[in-house]
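User: Hi! I have a protein structure encoded as tokens and I'd like to know what sequence might fold into it. I'm fairly new to this, so please keep things simple.
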């Protein structure tokens, strides 16, 4: 009889101990969600080495490196920012007279699977047009990239002093329905980075 009583007592004490330890864990953070792949899935695109040219008004280019971390190519179809009324994806092409001209990139930027895509002076870039306020060295500009599949990626570019990237438009100076009428041209921008 005393063995049976001891067994019942142990069972009750064990159950109470488990209940109490469960209560103590009630507010503890869950480790399951943190280690779940879906909870910490990597971004499809990352943007690094970002910067923009300091300017008082008008337009400024944004540069950097876009990396695709997936197994399939991704197309960046557009961009937007609160720093400018219009943001366009641009490329540099050779004009009929041999000069280099900038124009909107038809079809957007295609980032290869597990590859990178450079935005740099004298080449592809994001042009912010009709700035909403001066962009000064040390400022940060937040840019959102729109993807062809409907997704978005946001990054921040630091504004820096840079002597290159001096562009002028041939055509109108006011955006019409989100696009410039004509291309912008000027000296080929040197492929160098700004002073820090």
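Assistant: Happy to help. Inverse folding works backwards from shape to sequence: for each of the 196 positions I chose a residue that suits the local structure. Here it is:
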């Amino acid at each position: 009889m005393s063995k049976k009583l001891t067994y019942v007592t142990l069972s009750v004490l064990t159950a109470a101990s488990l209940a109490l330890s469960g209560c103590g864990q009630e507010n503890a953070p869950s480790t399951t969600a943190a280690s779940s792949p879906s909870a910490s899935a990597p971004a499809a695109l990352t943007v690094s080495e970002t910067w923009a040219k300091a300017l008082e008004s008008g337009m400024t280019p944004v540069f950097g490196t876009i990396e695709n971390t997936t197994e399939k190519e991704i197309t960046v179809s557009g961009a937007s920012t609160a720093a400018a009324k219009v943001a366009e994806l641009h490329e540099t092409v050779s004009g009929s007279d041999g000069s280099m001209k900038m124009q909107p990139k038809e079809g957007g930027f295609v980032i290869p699977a597990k590859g990178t895509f450079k935005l740099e002076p004298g080449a592809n870039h994001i042009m912010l047009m009709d700035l909403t306020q001066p962009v000064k060295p040390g400022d940060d500009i937040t840019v959102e990239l729109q993807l062809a599949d409907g997704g978005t990626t946001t990054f921040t570019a630091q504004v820096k002093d840079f002597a290159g990237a001096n562009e002028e438009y041939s055509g109108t100076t006011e955006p019409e329905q989100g696009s410039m009428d004509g291309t912008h041209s000027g000296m080929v921008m040197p492929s160098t980075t700004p002073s820090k």
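A useful reference point when you look it over: The helical segments are 2-24, 32-35. Feel free to ask if any position seems puzzling.
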